[in-house]
Amino acid sequence: MKDWFRFVGNNKRLLNFGFLFNFFSSYGQTFLISLFVPFWVISLNISNTEFGSLYAIITIISAFILSLSGRFIDQMPLKKFGIIVFIGLIISIIILSQAYSLPILVTGLLLVRLFGQGLMTHTSSTGIAKHFDNNRGKALGFTALGHPVGQFILPLVVVPLIALVGWRLSLLYMATAALLFIIPALWAISPVTGFEPDIKNVHGLTSYTKSKYLKSFKFWIIATNIFVVPFICTALFLYQYTIGQNKGWDASWVAFSFAFYAVFNAVALLLSGSLVDRFSGIKLFPLYLIPTFIALILMSIIDNKWVFPLFYALLGISTGLGSTIKTAMQVEVYGKNNLGKIRSYFSTILVLSTALGPPAFGYFIDHNFSFNTIVQVFGVVVIIIMGLSFKLFNNKAPHTRGLVK
């Protein structure tokens, strides 16, 4: 524990930047956006179905733009890229506060999904991964705590704020809060932090093209692994009250159970840093899926209500471990110079998974598949992907061997 405090103290400026960027990425996350949906539906006279369809399309478009824009973090200092991304986030929140028509709402949502969910997280994870070597796991684990802290704090603040001042002013207050915290964090970091010229490309030794990545079997092993947990979690989160009704559990028990997800997500994030620094991201890459597999199997065979908090705790462990492990693994496999480019592709896949999970789950429900059957199928998919992920053990890039100690 002393090592943790010493490490954080020695790197507090950059870690504070990474933590806050992850925290305020919540502005573009579904859990916070959902608090405003009822007001948009009423004020713009659209149905929930219409909004859901628009939201899925917007998410897919933002994922595509992310794959094109995320690579620019490789070509400029972290501070400069962070300023651009943060300005985009603030503009998106202001546009949403002025959503008096559907086109304005769509524009605001597209920007907040791109800059919030996508680029704020991408900037934090990529910047931290580029800067740290020996303590990369600790750095990624600490800064990723911004996500569960945001999930816990922001709904508790935003819900009463909306009731007090209305949804439009609430968005403006949210933008103001972000300015007050992020501007000092950006000001504190070095102007050149995280910037490293791509020496291999300068000398023409390596051609990093999209086709090279997409034709690699290794890429698709990593992609399916990154896809599966957000796909499952987003679907189950959206339909958690339907699941509760199916099992005979009331809404308060569902809400109580979900709290275990945030708590164990945070605990796993703290543990993940030390694990990555000790064992490496590649070795842990298949293993972080084990809690998800166990959670799905338990939900399919146990009807006792206490299985639900246990289920969410296990999902939280996988999510927390995976948040650090997946980024560390990408550095070990692909190196640091092109990390922004490769992470933009994988971040796109992650965003797509959150868009595709709910309609896939809804399709199964509408076609009368039992919940137990659905989670069993998910469990089989997870174990297959876990088995494929073990193939990365012998695929460490030669120029990155020994990078993580």
Q: What is the structure about, briefly put?
A:
Helix content is 78%, strand content 0%. The chain has helices at residues 2-10, 12-24, 30-33, 37-43, 48-69, 78-97, 102-131, 136-144, 146-165, 167-188, 199-202, 210-214, 217-238, 240-247, 251-279, 281-284, 290-301, 307-334, 339-366, 371-389.
Care to describe what's here?
The protein is mostly helical. It folds into 2 domains: 196 residues, MFS general substrate transporter like domains (Growth Hormone, Chain: A), CATH 1.20.1250.20; 205 residues, MFS general substrate transporter like domains (Growth Hormone, Chain: A, Up-down Bundle), CATH 1.20.1250.20. It is built from 20 helices and no strands. α2 runs antiparallel to α10 and α13 runs antiparallel to α20. The protein is globular, with a radius of gyration of 21 Å. The two termini are 19 Å apart.
